[in-house]
TrEMBL record:
This is alanine--tRNA ligase. It is an enzyme of class 6 (ligase). It comes from Candidatus Staskawiczbacteria bacterium RIFOXYD1_FULL_32_13. Residues 1-621 form the Alanyl-transfer RNA synthetases family profile domain. GO terms for molecular function: alanine-tRNA ligase activity; aminoacyl-tRNA deacylase activity; ATP binding; tRNA binding. PANTHER family: ALANINE--TRNA LIGASE, CYTOPLASMIC, ALANYL-TRNA SYNTHETASE. Belongs to the class-II aminoacyl-tRNA synthetase family. Its EC number is 6.1.1.7. Keywords: Aminoacyl-tRNA synthetase, ATP-binding, Ligase, Nucleotide-binding, Protein biosynthesis, RNA-binding, tRNA-binding. One of its GO terms (biological process) is alanyl-tRNA aminoacylation. InterPro entries: aa-tRNA-synth_II/BPL/LPL (IPR045864), Ala-tRNA-lgiase_IIc (IPR002318), Ala-tRNA-ligase_IIc_anticod-bd (IPR018162), Ala-tRNA-synth_IIc_core (IPR018165), Ala-tRNA-synth_IIc_N (IPR018164), Ala-tRNA_ligase (IPR050058), Thr/Ala-tRNA-synth_IIc_edit (IPR018163), tRNA_SAD (IPR012947).
């Protein structure tokens, strides 16, 4: 089955089960300080999983664009990608385990046509330390499901020690079958939600253990082994717990959070254990072959890194909150991916001028009917790629020669590593990768000191220090969030009505607000915006939330990111009523009820964030 048909079948299937289809959220998180990018379908749904009412009801499904920084180094094994689509469906206090498990297996077997004999399941073993018992309820449901397809499903415990033992359903500990954004229960912060899950695995029948040099040949065979035979294609999370000071407590509602990788389900449907051999990458791989005059089989790792990284940056830069390559935060990740792709392009012998834009053309063509924003932002993508490629091409050859001269040492000093970054534009991760290939080490402590000395923050950026959204839901953070709405309204009034938000980071101490504008703001302009916000605070204007369709929000000229389709309902926050209305913006909250509670607004800094983007930092006194 082609991926486009599979994606649509999934949405149609759950629509028949009473689910409202929502569009993919932005890759750039809003009101979420836990990550640089949207890394799962669950991320934008957290407020509703915690009990907030969703405008479209209690049954929701979508296909969510996702990006995971942590998988950058994993790309090259044929299975991992930084960019992927997550097919998701949610029950927000509606149905639970029985309906979810029956539906998802029915979809995979009867709609997609996967061979049920190749499907295996895992469930939660239980964890005494958090007083959550093993999930025998899901086991009983799964046995009924497999029985429907003529399989007598045996449940097995401790397969990681004793092997599969003819089992079909396997118990695993919290490290494998508990899901939260933070990982296992011990790592979950107070207030975080999570729960046990049931994963679905597909058996490709590739028994690598038979190879004499296999690192798994002496280990017991089980489906969570990394030998390559099995791959997880979906995960039903039973999201019903919240971590508190007193341990884990039940949420007010039982939720289902399903995530299934479109790429991996497509792999199973097209019967290939290499995701880059599916139709999702076929056109990109062909173009790389054309550009390099090499075959995919000649250097799979280089092909995969280039294909994945350029797909990722095309979507990140093509997002309506598009990010430009830079030395900070999300922009640093974009720069790192582009430059890593260029390096592996060199390894393949690609020399064509601005060759990355040729691949972006393919990616945009492949996805423009599904994600229209990348077509709408095509010029921006091409301009960013061209500028970054030209900038890096001017120094990469010199940088590689410089590295070669350093590699005669046993260890590369931090100063030399920083020189490669500052002078030749090598992200530290690229230098680490080159060093690893040569069997060398880098003095990272010295590198960090050099970075701090020069106020370069690239290393911490990739670890997620520069995060978007709200740090918490405290009263002061809520006030600053409302002030961000007022600030945008002021910028649109005194600069230009088309000024758009490019990102924000709000803590209880300050608001950091990025917006599209090329020029440095004058002191007069900053004072106009500051006075506008303070005047709105003095008027003690009401803040009112109204639910409406996206078309209605457009009709009243509400600000926001209009990348949606499917007629979604949204929340629009109005500041001031009638003739006193000064802001109407699509947002998920939270906000104050009256502006008079906010205090005095003060802009403390205005600076460049990246090309064409300015940044304001402000406080409430």
């Amino acid at each position: 089955m082609q991926s486009s048909e599979l994606r649509q079948k999934y949405l149609d299937f759950f629509k028949k089960q009473g689910h409202a289809i929502i569009p993919s959220a932005s890759l750039i998180p809003e009101n979420d300080s836990t990550t640089l990018f949207t890394s799962s379908g669950m991320q934008p749904m957290v407020p509703y999983l915690m009990g907030e009412k969703h405008p479209l009801g209690t049954r929701i499904c979508d296909s969510q664009k996702s990006f995971r920084v942590v998988d950058i180094e994993e790309v090259g094994d044929g299975r991992h990608g930084t960019f992927f689509e997550m097919l998701g469906n949610w029950s927000l206090g509606d149905y639970f385990k029985k309906e979810q498990l029956h539906w998802i297996y029915s979809f995979l077997v009867e709609e997609v046509g996967l061979n049920v004999n190749n499907l295996y399941a895992t469930v939660f073993r239980g964890e005494e330390s958090i007083k959550v018992t093993k999930d025998s309820e899901s086991v009983d449901i799964l046995k009924d499901i497999f029985k429907k397809y003529g399989i007598d499903a045996k449940d097995v415990n401790f397969s990681e020690k004793d092997g599969m033992q003819g089992g079909r359903i396997f118990y695993y500990p919290v490290e494998k079958n508990w899901w939260s954004r933070s990982g296992i229960p011990a790592k979950m912060p107070i207030g975080e939600i999570g729960g046990p899950d049931s994963e679905i695995f597909y058996d490709f029948g590739v028994d690598l253990k038979k190879h004499d040099n296999s690192e798994w040949k002496d280990l017991p065979c089980h489906i969570n082994c990394d030998c390559g035979r099995f791959i997880e294609i979906g995960n039903s999370v039973f999201m019903e717990y919240k971590k508190t000071e007193n341990g884990f407590e039940k949420l007010t509602q039982q939720n289902v959070d399903f995530g299934g990788g479109l790429e991996r389900i497509t792999m199973a449907s097209q019967n290939t254990e290499d995701v880059f051999q599916t139709d999702l990458y076929l056109n990109i791989i062909k173009k790389i072959e054309e550009l390099s005059n090499k075959k995919y089989s000649d250097d799979k790792k280089s092909f995969q890194i280039i294909a994945d990284h350029l797909k990722a940056v095309t979507f990140i830069m093509g997002d309506n909150r598009g990010i430009t390559p830079s030395n900070l935060g999300q922009g640093y990740i974009v720069r790192r991916l582009i430059r890593r792709a260029i390096r592996f392009g060199k390894q393949l012998g690609i020399n064509e001028y601005l060759w990355q834009t040729k691949l972006a053309e393919i990616i945009i063509s492949d996805y423009k009917d599904i994600y229209v924003e990348i077509q709408n932002n095509k010029d921006f993508i091409m301009d960013c790629l061209s500028a970054e490629e030209i900038k890096f091409e001017n120094t990469i050859e010199k940088g590689l020669k410089e590295f070669s001269s350093l590699s005669s040492q046993n260890i590369i000093s931090g100063k030399d590593a920083f020189l490669l970054y500052q002078t030749y534009g090598f992200p530290i991760e690229m230098t680490e990768e080159l060093a690893f290939e040569k069997g060398l080490k880098i003095d990272m402590e010295e590198f960090k000191k050099e970075s701090e000395k020069h106020q370069e923050l690239s290393r911490t950026a990739s670890a997620g220090t520069f995060k978007g959204g709200l740090a918490d839901a405290s009263e002061q953070t809520t006030k600053l969030h409302t002030s961000a709405h007022l600030m945008l309204a002021g910028l649109r009034k005194f600069l230009q009505d088309s000024v758009s938000q490019k990102g924000s980071n709000i803590t209880s101490e300050r608001v950091r607000f990025d917006f599209a504008w090329k020029d440095k703001l004058t002191q007069d302009q900053l004072k106009q915006v500051e006075d506008f916000v303070n005047e709105a605070i003095l008027k003690d204007l009401p803040v009112i939330c109204k639910e409406m369709t996206l078309d209605d929000a457009k009709e009243i000229n509400a600000t926001g990111v209009f990348e949606h389709k499917y007629g979604e309902r949204v929340k629009v926050y109005f500041i001031g009523e009638g003739e006193q209305n000064i802001s109407k913006e699509i947002c998920g909250g939270p906000h104050v009820e009256h502006t008079g509670t906010m205090g005095k607004f003060k802009i403390i800094k205005e600076e460049s964030s990246s090309a064409g983007v300015r940044r304001i930092k402000a406080i409430l006194q």
